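Progress note, project year one: complex with 2-acetamido-2-deoxy-beta-D-glucopyranose.
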Amino acid sequence: MKFLLDVAVAFGLLKVFAKVTAGQCRSNKCMVGKTAIVTGGSSGIGYETAADLASRGCKVIIADKADRAVSREALIERTGNPEVIYKHINLASFKSVREFAKEIIKTEKRLDLLINNAGISGIRNKLTEDGQLKVMQVNHLGPFLLTHLLADLIIRTPMSRIVFVSSILSFTNNLKKADMLNIPLNTTLDSMYAWKEYSNSKLCAMMAANVFSEKLQEGGVMVNSAIPGLVFSSNDPILNMPNNSPLNFIINKLLYLKIVLYGKNVYEGSQTVLYCALENDLNQVSGKVFADCMSVMQPPLAQIWDFRSRIWNKSEELVKLTESEKLK
Ligand SMILES: NC(=O)c1ccc[n+]([C@@H]2O[C@H](COP(=O)([O-])OP(=O)(O)OC[C@H]3O[C@@H](n4cnc5c(N)ncnc54)[C@H](OP(=O)(O)O)[C@@H]3O)[C@@H](O)[C@H]2O)c1
Ligand SMILES: *[C@@H]1O[C@H](CO)[C@@H](O)[C@H](O)[C@H]1NC(C)=O
Ligand SMILES: *[C@@H]1O[C@H](CO)[C@@H](O)[C@H](O)[C@H]1NC(C)=O
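Model obtained:
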């Protein structure tokens, strides 16, 4: 009895600790007259991010693959801001990304914020119409192409920022060679391949964010990565992982328990993303990774210039950038 009580107290204290250390974006910035794109903005962390930006008067373009008109209307009702727009994009298709960017360039005069939030997990070794691993394309190659195509518009907008929504799982990658970007993992050799696929894609996106930060510095664009933490959303990476081995089964169950007990809700999950997008202290800060609104360490591989550069060059090749689209 005493033991059970101790356990309950310990869990309770951990919960308090989790709540106290959860970061909060305390910015009061007004966003009237500004424009933001939030990919994956029709659900989860992206939806909460879009809601916050809209409540500040920002024009918000929700870029998602399904038109969830309910979300858009709900956002307008919730924030009282009629300037919430939905535009279709499928990040798993280079053609769709190009069409989306072309239209944005045609219709928008400025782009203050690009929030690369959309992401998927748990789809194992599946290929897209472009012949790429689907997780890698949605989480890295698609946003990589999109950011290139919108770079001019973003540079033309003063004080603009780009945020890449990353994950703590970027640390558990097994990306050793740049050409592994589009080579399916060997499922016999690596029972954790579904994790690795996600981890690798998040690491690539983080490395790309670092290089974008260097290349766009002169244009005055700040580029950072935001780790939202464990968030209870429909596409929870962890809830989507396969139970393909006893070890994975146990890990998944433990993580599920952890997420139920200590997971953030989507509002809490959006705080670090918003911090990177809005905080005045970050007006001159670029190429960093934030978690709970604090600058944190990056995975060791992300800091190796040569490796980063090879991933960048390989990504340029895979998304088929023309010479003039490449960033100098
Ligand atoms: N939840 C967590 O614990 C956690 C932790 C660390 C990082 N993250 C990252 O946070 C980001 C947001 O995740 P979330 O938890 O909010 O997940 P979510 O609720 O599933 O939101 C992801 C959004 O992206 C959209 N999307 C998926 N595939 C797309 C595609 N091919 N083209 C365009 N949009 C697409 C989804 O649309 P549909 O619903 O129509 O598929 C959805 O609206 C992701 O990058 C995720 O990896 C999440
Ligand atoms: C995966 O690795 C195993 C063990 O080395 C090997 O027998 C198999 O051919 C590999 N599969 C693929 C698709 O490369
Ligand atoms: C990537 O490409 C650039 C430009 O072509 C080149 O300068 C750089 O050395 C390449 N990186 C690596 C690691 O080969």
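The mean pLDDT is 91.
Strands lie at 35-39, 59-64, 84-88, 113-116, 161-165, 222-227, 289-291, 294-296.
No further modelling is planned for this target in the current period.
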